[in-house]
Amino acid sequence: MIHPAASPVRAFLDDHSDRFLDELAAWVRIPSVSAVAEHEADLVRSARWLAACLSESGFPRVEELDAGGPPAVFAHWPCEDPGAPTVLVYSHHDVRAVKDEEWEETSPFEPVRRLGHVYGRGTSDAKGQLLCHVWALRAHLAVTGRRCPAVDLKLLVEGEEEIGSPHLADLLKQHAELLAADVVILTDTMTWSVQEAAVCTAVRGMVSAHLEVRGPLRDVHSGLVSGAAPNPLTELCRLIGRLHDEHGRITLPGFYDTVTRPTDEQRARLAEIPFDPDDWIRRTQTRAICGEEGYSVLERVWMRPSVEVDALIGGDPEGTSRGVIPAVASADLIFHTVPGQRVEQVEQQLRQWVTDHIGDHVDYELTFSPTNSEPYATPPDHPALAVLEQALARTVNRPAHRMRNGGNAPAELLSQTLDAPVLFFGTGLPEDHWHDSDEKADVQALLNGAETLAHLLADLPRAMEDDGGDPPG
Questions:
Q1: Same structural domain for residues 116 and 23?
Q2: How far is the C-alpha of 225 from the C-alpha of 231, rounded, in Å?
Q3: CA dihedral defined by 183, 186, 189, 192, rounded to 10 degrees?
Q4: Which helix (DSSP H) or strand (DSSP E) does residue 324 occupy?
Q5: Is residue 285 in a domain?
Q6: Which residues form a coiled coil (predicted)?
Q7: Which residues have C-beta within 8 Å of that of residue 140, sequence separation ≥ 6?
Q8: Dihedral sign computed on CA atoms, order 118, 16, 447, 168
Q9: Are residues 190 and 73 in the same domain?
Q10: 314 and 240 in contact (C-beta within 8 Å)?
Q11: pLDDT given at position 471
Q12: pLDDT in tens, 369-412
């Protein structure tokens, strides 16, 4: 039922919500897992499903761009109004791998609606978020009666984000003129809650490292050499245990030297977000709160750097123990970086730290991902950010908060290559189980997102015109 105070945009969205959710379900049924080679054809199907959806929605130009990997989808709907700003929406249509046996609400690619949520891989990250733009466009055109959007609208939806976007840099360079824009909207982030909505204004960067430690030349019977042979698992665990000090700070020398500390204003804005520790633990299912002393939980996950052990492998993790000292052990580390830090700087600091602290009785190899990313913050005084905040506040009928995203995104790459500021907009929630079993999207969050974006489409041209921005290209 439509609330009597609903805006015409929201009335349209509510009236068509079943169709929108059916479209999301149809897309989610395509298992577009980029990390598994067997799903290569599914990534093509996913791209072509999206291309057809965009064409049916009215985009006069829709095509696949050769990214050197899974296809990326590009769409363009020019605006007939002279001087209208150009907006490029960036997102992705690939999804994370699944462990089917751990899903309890539904099979990963058999979406179901239940108690105000849609369950399935990609419902929140990020197919649901991207479809919010499609739904927003339909509502915008229906309510305004326009033949084209009020902005020059472009979409770029790649198929490799979940594996680090290895071909995105080349794609952006090859098609820089085609993708030129006044502002980029990156739709692969979160908001705080349905009741207390927030605009994301920054993301952390990421440095992924793989450390392999080698002990004996082969797996050796433990009883034969125990007490006299190097154990790479023991050495690796000892090393990992030294990554943090007793105050939760990372021990790499110089690691914090260039970190930009939160300003009083930034800390005050974060403090406005209604945070309850017990609610946080319940929503994130993290069991407890820990981390760097002297900072709030939200400051730790959004404004401070961190390091996590993503995987630790050695010995016989499954099956019957063979009673051996393993020849090799390895760990995957993820550093989340913040403004002031650079990828090459953190890589060099880790190289030096491992060299200085690893035992001389083992050998090792340290490698880094070629797709590490830099942190990025939206210019706080950009007029498009103010319009986005106003659009969100209009949707939820209360002031919008400002938050950040603890994960990473190719925002810095997009901004630098296309010479345009990046806005963040997402509908994900901390309890949506991204990358885990039983991923879900909140239906109200999706509808709120589509309504906010429809308001943004209508209101952005005047704000950009008042700012006097030059056209792209």
A1: yes
A2: 10
A3: 20
A4: strand 324-325
A5: no
A6: none
A7: 9, 146, 149, 150, 454, 457, 458
A8: positive
A9: yes
A10: no
A11: 44
A12: 999 999 999 999 999 999 999 999 999 999 999 999 999 999 99
* Angle made by CA atoms 48, 137, 12, in degrees to the nearest 5: 115
Measured CA to CA, the distance from residue 393 to residue 416 in angstroms comes to 30
| CA of residue 387 relative to chain centroid, distance | 22
Yes or no: say if 34 and 93 are a contact pair by the CB < 8 Å rule.
no
Share of the chain above pLDDT 70, in %: 97
Residues in the chain: 473
What is the b/e burial string over 86-98, where b = at least 16 CB atoms within 10 angstroms of the residue's CB?
bbbbbbbbbbbeb
Q: What angle do CA 31, 433, 11 make, to 5 degrees?
A: 85
- Residue 281 placed within a domain: no
- Burial degree of 85 (CB within 10 A; 0-12, 13-18, 19+): buried
- pLDDT, position 466: 67
For every residue of 408-473, DSSP letters joined together read --THHHHHHHHT--EEE---B-GGG-TTSTT-EEEHHHHHHHHHHHHHHHHHHHHHHHHHTPPPP-
pLDDT value at 128 more than 90: yes
pLDDT at 473 over 50: no
Is the separation of the CB atoms in 90 and 156 below 8 Å? Answer: yes
Query: Across the chain, what does the average pLDDT equal?
Result: 95
Please give the residue range of the domain that contains residue 183: 8-203+375-467
CATH code (residue 355)? 3.30.70.360
User: Do both 386 and 346 map to the same domain?
Assistant: no
Token code pair at residue 226: 């125990």
Q: Output the pTM of the full model.
A: 0.95
For residues 59 and 138, state if they share a domain: yes
